[in-house]
Write a structure and sequence with these properties.
Layout: H1 3-33, H2 41-65, E1 73-75, H3 76-109, H4 111-117, H5 120-142, E2 151-153, H6 166-202, H7 209-212, H8 221-238, H9 240-271, H10 285-307, H11 310-323, H12 329-341, H13 345-352, H14 367-375
């Protein structure tokens, strides 16, 4: 490759690493600093996994991918450590995303069941399950590795170049447990959420009290024209908020699923054929490209699962303004106006689907109820609403 391509590739890899470091640290600080946001357990855990990957895994990926580091030689133990970090962090990241999607499904479709079952103990058990499964999968990859004092170049210390006949079995199990099954779960969960959003958008908006209140009959043409005009002008105002929420929900779901598939499908589509005899897939440059497409997930996850949340963005704006000693009055007004229009779409869907749990709670919230809903919008641990 030319020097220009090497420089551009090295710059992109360093930029992704720095973005992953900064973005994940920012989201983690906001969640841990704000008591209300400490219930975003799984989002915070995803940021921890991404941050660990940016500190340990991505710099090792730069060494393995750039020809500037061809002189780096790994021993067998060092190469095992690199493979361990690679598989473990990839598994933990994908499994965390899968659990976040399942959590959102129960939060939207079964809100009452979510309120009862989603506890701190269950959230901690989910985190423990993620790491136990990730470590077990990684240990399986290193079971039959050769022992001794041999050495290999950094560029060949990857999953594709790993020695041993057990690699074929491992790649199949790794692909099934860490990509195929999570992808099926994510698609099924977000398809259900999409159906909920579509149903909510098709529901007829409630008619306000003024429109149905009994009035004294008046036969004058002027009065009839006034009533008809008021009703015509009122109806378009009843539906935009509901349609806006559903459209934002559908767009967000498409972005989340699309981002997951764009990052991880090339990686597993590259490695899975290596387990098939007579496979003609080559390593080298192709493996480097799909690996860094997968690594880009560590940099974009905090934006899709953290900074897209309106409450987290507002808290970030407050922190920035407090650091710059700016008044908060104008920001508070903007926050209130934004909350009235750009409502959290998960809260919108949960309200729209409350008939799945009870037939008596589907009413338009009064200003008092809206205030109560705002103050208690995060009732349980692990809740991760998205805008």
């Amino acid at each position: 490759h030319s020097i220009g391509q090497e420089v551009v590739g090295l710059f992109c890899m360093i930029l992704l690493t720095l973005t992953a470091l900064v973005a994940n640290i920012v989201v983690m600080v906001i969640i841990l600093k704000t008591p209300l946001f400490r219930k975003f357990i799984f989002v915070c855990h995803l940021c921890v996994v991404n941050l660990l990957s940016a500190i340990f895994l991505m710099p090792l990926g730069i060494i393995s991918s750039s020809s500037c580091f061809n002189w780096v030689i790994y021993s067998i133990a060092e190469c095992k450590a690199v493979i361990f970090l690679n598989i473990c962090f990839i598994s933990a990241s994908i499994l965390t995303i899968c659990i976040i999607s399942m959590e959102r499904y129960y939060y939207i479709v079964h809100p009452l069941r979510y309120e009862v079952k989603m506890t701190i103990r269950l959230a901690v058990a989910g985190v423990v399950f993620i790491w136990v499964k990730s470590v077990l999968i990684t240990v399986l990859a290193l079971v039959a590795w050769p022992h001794g004092n041999g050495a290999t170049s950094a560029s060949r210390c990857t999953i594709y170049w790993s020695p041993g006949a057990h690699k074929k079995v491992f790649v199949i199990l790794f692909s099934i447990t860490c990509f195929i099954l999570p992808t099926i779960i994510i698609l099924a969960v977000y398809s259900s959420i999409y159906r909920v959003a579509r149903t909510a958008s098709l529901q007829q908006a409630p008619v306000p009290a003024q429109a149905v209140a009994p009035r004294h009959r008046c036969d004058s043409i002027a009065s009839q024209v006034t009533i008809l005009t008021a009703r015509i002008l009122m109806l378009p105002r009843l539906i935009p908020d509901r349609l806006l929420g559903s459209n934002k929900a559908i767009l967000t779901l498409i972005l989340i699923v699309g981002q997951f598939l764009c990052c991880w499908l090339p990686f597993f589509a590259f490695h899975l054929p290596s387990s098939v005899p007579l496979a003609t897939v080559g390593g080298g440059h192709g493996e480097m490209v799909v690996t860094w497409i997968a690594y880009s997930s560590f940099a974009v996850n905090p934006f899709f699962y953290g900074l897209r949340n309106r409450q987290i963005r507002e808290e970030l704006a407050r922190l920035r303004r407090s650091c710059l000693n700016h008044p908060l009055g104008q920001e508070l007004c903007l926050s209130i106006s934004e909350a009235s229009v750009q409502e959290n779409f998960l809260q919108f869907l949960q309200r729209a689907t409350c008939t799945l749990e009870t037939h008596t709670s589907c009413i338009s919230p009064s200003p008092r109820n809206r205030l109560d809903q705002t103050t208690t919008s995060f009732p349980t641990p692990g809740q991760a609403p998205e805008e």
